[in-house]
Every structure is written in structure tokens, then in C-alpha cells.
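Internal QA ticket QA-208
Title: Verify multi-chain structure generation after dependency bump
Assignee: T.L.

Test input:
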Amino acid sequence: MNQIEILRFALRGLLANKLRSALTTLGILIGVAAVIMLVAIGEGSSRSIQQNIQRLGANTLTISPSFSGGGGQRGPSGGNTGPRTQARQLSLADARALTDKTLAPSVKSVSPVVTVSAAQAVYGAASHPIAQLVGTYPSYFEAVNKPVAKGAYFYNDDVLAARKVMVIGQTVADELFGATDPIGRQVSVKGVPFTVVGVLKAAGSSGAQDADDVAVAPLPAVQQSLSGFGSLNQIVVQATGAETTSAAQAEVTAILNQRHGITNPNNPDYRLLNQATLQETVSEATGTFTVLLAAVAAISLLVGGIGITNIMLVTVTERTREIGIRKALGAPRSAILGQFLMEATLLSLVGGLSGVLVAFAGTRFSIAGIEPVLVPSSVVLALGVSVGIGLFFGGYPANRAAKLRPIEALRHE
Amino acid sequence: MTVPVLRVRNLVKEYGEGEAKVRALRGVSLDVEQGDYVAIMGASGSGKSTLMNILGCLDVPTSGTYEIDGTDVGRLDEHQLAVLRNRRVGFVFQAFNLIPRMSALANVELPLVYGGVAPAERRARALAALERVGLAGRVHHEPNRLSGGQQQRVAVARALVTAPALLLADEPTGNLDTASTADVLQILDGLSASGRTIVLITHEDDVAAHAKRVIRLVDGEIVDDRRQAPVDGPPPRLVEAAR
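Actual output:
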């Protein structure tokens, strides 16, 4: 009695009841495919969120004014939450102070930013309100990760000379110029002529905001003609590396607190956003999300396993008489046990493998805008658990069948 | 004198506990020689089926010893018992007990599979056994496409195919019509004539008339043991037919 004979008996046993075997297999298939696909979707969505965050710029700190000191902060209870009359705006001098290499050695570049929203731009007959017109320094491009796809950046010379040049986003280029090459053309923004020197690489839209509906121009040029020489909307600070982001944050906080005369460090008049911290928080959240999805899928796998147990119990009960005949003909216990274990294993293995195939096919499509990412460990886990379930839950009824005395089994009707 | 194929001493089998206790066998002792053809007769409830199940190693006695070819069955473990059932005993049931959805050939091959016989030899031996019971033309039929008589002949072929020392038949003709009964009994007569040891159970005198020795059981005890023909001769019906 070798393994091949046992396999043959098991196959014959399964084929004798095709529909039942197919439905049991389907249960395991759905369980395995669900585990793999849901984990892949969780992984895919967490990666896409991280990419979106990285697109905002690597190793950057964004400082913006906070008028209601404590409003957006976790201030101590009883802290001043009313409007702060003495709150200071961010100034160009603040930005310059941050470039001090001795006080802030971890800071690579500082880009002061003024923004003008919905600035009407006109080229010939075409007109388009630019969602965000940014006046800044050239270091801004690197800090916020906005590379130029066509043409060139503007340079420090342009900033010093307050030249009216600008780099426009893809959406702006499409709206104003269509198929024409925008480089070197003059666009009138609120009546002020700007020369287009470059087009930014398309970043794609994230949510409702179109990240390509922007234009970037030298800071003084925008201040002169559009925003006036008031306060800054933002200061973007780039750290020298990913490891120094926290150090840079501490340095920037110290300098600004000193300059703005902040006595309570929990309640400053500016807000500091650290991309790295944001990224960590979001990864944690998506990690939880993935675990949740996997837990739901694991339940369906368990249900599939119970299905196998159920079918094996029914099969053994139904075939008790056959077991009796086989034992009367001299089948050893190992052969009976082997046959039913093999049946259970085949069911779960076939179901598991087809589940993996379905999952492989399913993860090739993007689901609700999310590109699923196959996690190899989830494949191994799902397949292992399904076969394990088959062996474990199939083993119980099989063992019960093998232990029957032949006469008891034969009397069973 | 050689060792008897079957030697049974003081076999007792009890079912149930206390008030509900039933003594199916009350100390049966019996020797069956090589080549004998024994019919065990008795009314229902006389314990003949219980005796048969113990002889076939399908059930265990409450007390008493039982030897096949000099081997004490009571001392065997589960695996050795399986080997014994496979090699030494061929069992024919009243209800045929073929495995459904398996062809006649596969059914006959089954004991050889468990006996570890190679596929080519298995097939040859199974075909030979089927031919011997006159079913060479129906080897690929499944049991539900065979008549009762044909099914029982497949069962006889299955019991024979391992060339066992002992062929046990539990009312082999109980579910069969007259013509099929004659077929099966003729096969058993032929087997006996070729030297096979046969023990069968019946409650019909016509069937018992085929045996060389008739044993009557009443209430779990042997009340009559009558020889109809010598052990080493042909069975009585073949002798009559030859005349």
C-alpha cells in the first residue's frame, strides 16, 4: 500500500461527489484569495499614501503663522486660546535668521513663500485663474520636490533682480497654451506680464486639489506686483538629510521662539509641520488598516476551514459502511487515515492554490484607484493556513473513521 | 495430523451490561481441517452470525481462544489483524458489500492493493478470479449495473483473490433468487473440490446439503455436528452429479 494508491483512492473519493468537493474548494479559494487580496490592497493604499506624502517634499519643515496661538496646537489646558494681538507674522527676516549656519547647522535651505490664490492669468484669448501663485526662492523647487519637466528654473539672479519670470504647472500650461510651447511666452497675471521659463513635471492630483494648477515666480517679483511686501505665508525649511529633520526642527523652533519672544513653547504664534512625523503617523494608520483587512479575511479563511471539517465529517459518516468493508478486506488503519487525510488535504490544497491564482490575477487590476501590492508573506501564510486547516480539521474525522472496529462500521446504515 | 485451519476453544461472546446482558455464544469449541467444507446452521438469534464475525476477525470474543493456522488471533495487534484479514481470510457477506462507484475489477483488486501487490500482477490475478466466477465479460461494470447474483459472484471473487487459507461466507445466498443461488453454490462446490477450506452460514437445508460437514447452533451452543462427506474428498453434490 503505497502513497500513490492512497492518492488514487482519495481522488476517487473526491470525484464521487464532484459538486460537494467543488463547493468546499470554493470556500477555501475565497478565503485564501480574500486574505491575499485584502492585504495587497492595504499595502497598496499605504504605499500610495506614502508616495503622496513624499511628493510633498522630502525632509522638509513647513512653518506657517498661527494667529490664534494654541488654536491648532495641543496647548496646556487653561492656555490662552483667544486671538493674540501680539502674535507676530512670519517675516523675511525670520527666514534669513534660519539660514544662520552656526545656530541652525541642520538646515540645508530656507525658502520664504508668499502665495496668491486664484490669480487670473491671460495669454492671448485664453484666460485661467491659477489656483496658487507662489513667490519664493529657487531652493523651493528642491525642498517641495517640484522638478521642471521642460525649460528651466529661475535662479538667484532672477530673485535679486526681481525679474518677472515664472515656472508654471502642467494644468496652467494646458489651460493657457494648449498645444503651443509656453517657454518664452508672456503671460499677464492680474495685468502684470510674466515670462514663462519652465513647466513643472506633472504631479497628478491628490484628492480635490490639483497639484499642477500652480505657478512659481521669484519672491520679490510677486511681492512687487501682486501681494505687496507684507508678511510671508510660509517658510519652507529643508533639512540636510532624513536623520537631521528632528534636529532641524529643534533648531528652527529655538530660533523662532527667541525671535518672536515666545515664553510658553507649547503655545507659539507659528505652526511647524514636519513631513517625517506626518509620514510616520500615516504609516501607522495605514498599518492598522491593513491589519483590520487581514483580520476580516482571516475570518473568511476560518469559515472555509470549518467547511472542510464539516464536509469531512459528513463524508466519513456517509461512508462508514465503506470503511467497514475496506477494513474487513484487510485495510490497515494507516491506509484509512491516509485516504481521508489526503482527501482533506487535496481539497484545501486545490482550493488554496486556486485562491492564490485568483489573487494573483485580481491584484493586477487597480481597485478603487488603489494599485494592490502583493505581499509574498501573505501568500505563504494564507496557503499554509489553508493546508494546515485541511490537515488539522480533516484529521479528526479521519482518525475517528480509522479507529472504528470493522463490525461496528459494517453495521452502520 | 496437520494443524487445523481453524481452532476455536470455549468461545464466549456477551453483549450489553447487567440486566440487558445477552450471551450470544456460550462456549463454542470447534476445529476445522484443511480442505473441509462446513455449513453452520441455526435459527436467527442462535449466534451463528456472531461466531462468523469472530472467525472473520471482524469482532473480538469476550473470552476463549481462536487460532487461524496455529496463530492465536487474540494476541495480535491492530496492524497484524489487518494483515491477517487481508491474507488468511476471505469474507463473503449476505449483503454483498461491494464498494459503490468502483468497477467489479477495482473491487476485486482492492484486497490486493491493501496487500501491497504490484499493479500488473494485481490486475492479472483479479481478472483470473473474475473469470473463475464466470464474470469475465463484466469486469468494468459498477455494482449498481450488476444483478444480485452477479454482485455476489464479484464478492466471492474478491474473497478468493488473495488465495486465503479460509473462505468465510455469511449467508451468501440469503439475498438471492433460486437461479443465482445455484450459481453461487456451484462456484463454492468447485472451490471446495479444488481444496479450498470453506465455512458458510445458512438457515436453508438445501444450501447445507452442499457441505461436507453440518454444524447446528442453538442458543449459542453447538448441538449437532454431522459429517456428510470425507474431508479429503469432493463435496457431496459434486459426487451426486458425477454419478
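Spot checks passed. Residues 90 and 167 of chain B are 5 Å apart (CA to CA).
Status: verified.
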